[in-house]
Amino acid sequence: EVERLMNLMRWVHAQVRHDGSSRNPEPMNAPHLLEVCRAEKRGINCRMMATILNEAYLSLGFKSRQVTCQPLDEKDPDCHVITTVWSNDLGKWLYMDPTMEATFTDGQGHLLSIAEVRERLISGAPLELSKGANWNGRPENPATYKAYMAKNLVRITCPVESAFGYESRPERRYVTLDGLGFPARPARDAAGGLITHDPAAFWARP
Hints:
The chain is an alpha+beta fold.
């Protein structure tokens, strides 16, 4: 099972290149995104790459979610979007980054969840980036990638429903995991976003 999950992530990474400044072609679903990238020989941003992987997992019956990783500072426009998929064999959600062909292990070869990666970034416990992690074929520096994710793994947002074509629905709702001490975000609340401070509920077994 884990090998299939890994292979799908690597497949998505190999299908399209990352271009953070690209426009998102409508409709934003995996078949159309792949078709546009091939026809126009263009790239897509990390959100669209995570969307392709998420829908690939869903199509094969895996439980998965698109995950937006954000910094604490709302004035920081940069964030990163990855995918998390539930492994029945391991009994947990797994961290999958199709943009960078990246996963994390605990240094003993055990794959980690997003929550576990975040905890290890905070505590300084062993955290090993997967060999072969790269951006458009350029090897990724582990220290640089860890620092980037440490900055962005602060506020974590997922759609309330993980489904094909969700990114193109006229009405979408998202839930964000925030720390108890984080400043409130009235703009997000007014837009229909949900806020939770309960990691156990946010990362509950599907």
